[in-house]
Amino acid sequence: MTIQLDLEPAVERGLLTQAQVHGLSLEEYVQQIVTREAHLPPSTSAARQAANLVELSESVRGLLSDDEVDTIFRRNPSTSRPIDLT
Asked: How far is the first Cα of the chain from the last one, in angstroms, to the nearest whole number?
């Protein structure tokens, strides 16, 4: 079903801002709001997007060994500079 809405410019800007915060298009964001307010489960496309995120992360899994990760993300336990007290 297609519904056409005539939104006030301020409402449209607010919805567009919120959509961008959630990484969605305005149409996707409004669809989520309408679905939520209708008390329906999320569409299968939302579940498919979550599956795609898992699938996307699989391509980088295992590229670095645990030792390489430890080396890259090693934190210096001291934030101060060494001093000579002699």
From this structure: 81
pLDDT one-digit tens code per residue, 6-33: 999 999 999 999 999 988 899 999 998 9
pTM of the prediction?
0.46
What is the DSSP secondary structure assignment for residue 74, as one 8-state letter?
-
Tell me how far CA of residue 3 lies from CA of 6, 8, 12, 27, 68, in angstroms: 10, 16, 15, 11, 53
DSSP per position, 15-73: HHHHHHHTT--HHHHHHHHHHHHTT-PPPHHHHHHHHHHHHHHHTTTTSS-HHHHHHHT
* Token pair recorded at residue 37: 């307010």
Place of tokens 């002699």: 86
